[in-house]
Amino acid sequence: MTARRRWSIGRALDGFFFVFAGLAAIWLAYLSFTASFSLGWAGIAMVIAFWVLLAYLVLPRLHRILTAVYVPDYFMGRTRTSDGLLGDPVNLAFQGEREAIEAVMAAAGWIAADPVSLRSSWRIITSTLRRRSYPRAPVSPLFLFGRMQDLAYQQEVAGSPAQRHHVRLWKCPDGWLLPGGRRVDWLAAGTFDRAVGLSLFTLQVTHRIDADTDIERDHIVGSVRAVPGVAVDVIRDFSTGYHSRNGGGDSITTDGDLPIVDVSAVGVSAVDVAAAEAGT
Amino acid sequence: MSARRAPHKRAAFEPLAPAVTGAPDMHRPAATVAGAVLVFLRAAAGMLWAFGVAFELPPWLQAVAAASGDASDGSSPLTLADFDTTPGVFLGVLGFVALVQVVFGSFVLAGGNVARVVVMVISTLSIIGSFIGWWEFGQDITVRTTLLTLSLDILVLLALSSREAAAYARRPRRRRRERRRDGARTPSSRRAVGAPSDSAG
User: Fold this and answer.
1) Which of A96, A192, B63, B79 is the most buried (most CB within 10 A)?
2) Size of the A and B interface in Cβ pairs below 8 Å
3) What's the order of all strands across the beta sheet hosting A142-144?
4) pTM over cut 0.80
């Protein structure tokens, strides 16, 4: 019983420190900004320090505090960024086991993304700057059902991670129903990274996405539809109302259709054979 | 009727998964490491400042040392004569303070929640002190005075108050140090608390 208690001194303290640290960081950003005027050339380094402070510490913390207050935490067809901002739209659903999805995506030419780590982050930066290929480049975490994506796939476009197709998948909680009552096993958000730029909301370096998310959704569906045994059903006008911006401030438009890709009829071994044949 | 249907339906809203407690096997998040490293830096800055007061340092190191301390106006660098003590006592006291910081930093790194909260309380008091001095008494906070220590305090607080750091410090675990409540729940951890090897940490 006490374990489920919602309020405790420890949590209240944590909440206080969370908000106080955000306020203190604003003050620090102000101090470093004003200090940069009095430093001559060293002031440029100070301005960069100010941007790092603002983009990676102050604004994320502010967004985290504010979105916890005003963004409701139920399913609304949108993922959320780690700062709590509304992220890429949920525009795909899957039926089937994890193994079947992995097999189908591999057969359709999708490559699983590396988990975000210091090493993979460094590698995506260097390969973007030097325009080198990094087919397994990590994708940033987005959250649905309070969880990071379970699977992430991508296809590099111009031999560099700056432009890529990518899709994230979340396993739905057991017994969870879509608004409207339909049951799906997985939800997915597919968008096309068109360039590297600055996020509108946090000023962090991030991928800008193509506004027409339907093109990317249809590209994903088209690629997996070619795999034998995959069936596709569509819920029309599922999210017609969600014309908006994603977590980086890029605008999004969609016709609102939600394709449901059913891979449950796909035998894992059959796909492996097909993929092996295609590869040889 | 509703009772019959209830087990098949979930609530329309997802419960806000409070990231307050992590999984027992969660990896140490970057925020915890950053917080501990910043506490170590704070200790190093304090020692550097102490050495700067006690000994003659090269000019560039003297400048860094002055910025690491609490020189209020930065007009004239403090020397040992201002404190009316011997170098041994002076360095001993400040060395002890730095040692305490290093110990707390190590506990934070190990994932201790009590150490995390204590460090955050101290940082908060230090920040409030600086803010009052700045707002009420017009003390300058620049690179040449206390901006470095203040930044370290605020960055420590930011890192350790983050959700990941909180989740890591509050994660349930088998071997317990400071939370006996968890230990009372599972027999294995009760043994671990009583084990003599555990008290060494």
Assistant:
1) A192
2) 82
3) A86-89, A78-81, A142-144, A147-148
4) no
